[in-house]
């Protein structure tokens, strides 16, 4: 199918669809079970349609590249506070990540621990459901709504409930200064203790990660405030070892750069205190890093029986009340295993009911999130 360039064209294509559709924006997030169907390319729905810096509000068509939005915001000294991650390095994909893909997958980076997730900054959405009906929910300001909060529902639905055509976002000012405190030589359990102490302090840590045996603690804000908070944190965390103050590239954590090239990559969410236990349960030779103070574990593994490893990972994570997603793996494996953590029966029934409501013909990325 050719690239679609308008919401009306998307609605018509959905209404006339005779079989499964593979929803594609920038094509950078090839996660989930492989879907066989006709490609619905919505990358042509591109462009910022409204930007009011004074109101901290931006509206863009769903196919707009994230880089284009970030460039427009930077010109006004503003930013996407939720720091969306980019999977092109992990997956080896090309193309440009789009804002529709970010919201559809709720792609949130290291700053989530302080600022919130992508869904928390989505003020409104327009989308086309599986019957070709155009639906609008939310608006351009934060407010309470009645009925379904479809903005939140669409965030993390991976294109299985509808095709996003427009997104309204809350944006925030950029910061004057940034620094990172680095503590070297900590094992996973000690790293979580250090990160927990920092995050539990009043010093507003905006990133807390463990990378290659180092704890990274990011501080952002006005220059004087950053300097004061850094000094106070150094005193608070002195028992964990020498603390260096440096400028580091947080994309290393955001985009799981140490795992680029691994045969299989998992994104695992658990209670921060369970991060070290997850790492200990992974097969020998697995490379890991922790974000969100230990609540997010990225794991990469090469060789061996990836399907068996995946089953073991999900079983271990389920016992801790968390969930593990196979972000990268061979197509044969992704076709045979539950890529996303299997849901509890009650939740699975609710999910199926919602999908039937919004996609009664089962044409939107069918099977992509199947257990």
What would a concise description of this structure say?
This protein is α+β, with helices and mostly antiparallel strands. The protein is built from 13 helices and 17 strands.
Model description:
The model is unreliable at 141-146 (pLDDT under 50). This protein folds into 3 domains: 7-173, Uridine Diphospho-n-acetylenolpyruvylglucosamine Reductase, domain 3 (2-Layer Sandwich); 177-254, 2-Layer Sandwich (Alpha-Beta Plaits); 257-336, Alpha-Beta Plaits, CATH 3.30.70. The strands form 5 sheets. A 5-stranded antiparallel β-sheet has the order 3-4-8-6-7. A 4-stranded antiparallel β-sheet has the order 11-12-10-13. A 4-stranded antiparallel β-sheet has the order 15-16-14-17, with helices on one face. It is an alpha+beta fold and 371 residues long. It is 30% helix and 25% strand. The chain has 13 helices and 17 strands.
What do the pLDDT scores average to?
94
In helices, the fraction of residues equals: 25-40%
Provide the β-strand percentage band.
15-25%
Question: What is the CATH architecture assignment of the largest domain?
Answer: 2-Layer Sandwich
The helix/strand series, from N terminus to C terminus, equals HEEEEHEHHHEEHEEEHEEHEHEHEEHEHH
Structural class: alpha+beta
Total helical segments = 13
How is the biggest beta sheet arranged? 5 strands, antiparallel
What is the number of strand segments?
17
CATH names the topology of the largest domain as Uridine Diphospho-n-acetylenolpyruvylglucosamine Reductase, domain 3
Distance between the termini: 29 Å
Count of individual domains: 3
For this structure, what is the CATH class of the largest domain?
Alpha Beta
Q: What is the C-alpha radius of gyration, as a whole number of Å?
A: 21 Å
Dominant shape: globular
Low-confidence stretches: 141-146
| Order of strands across the main sheet | 3-4-8-6-7
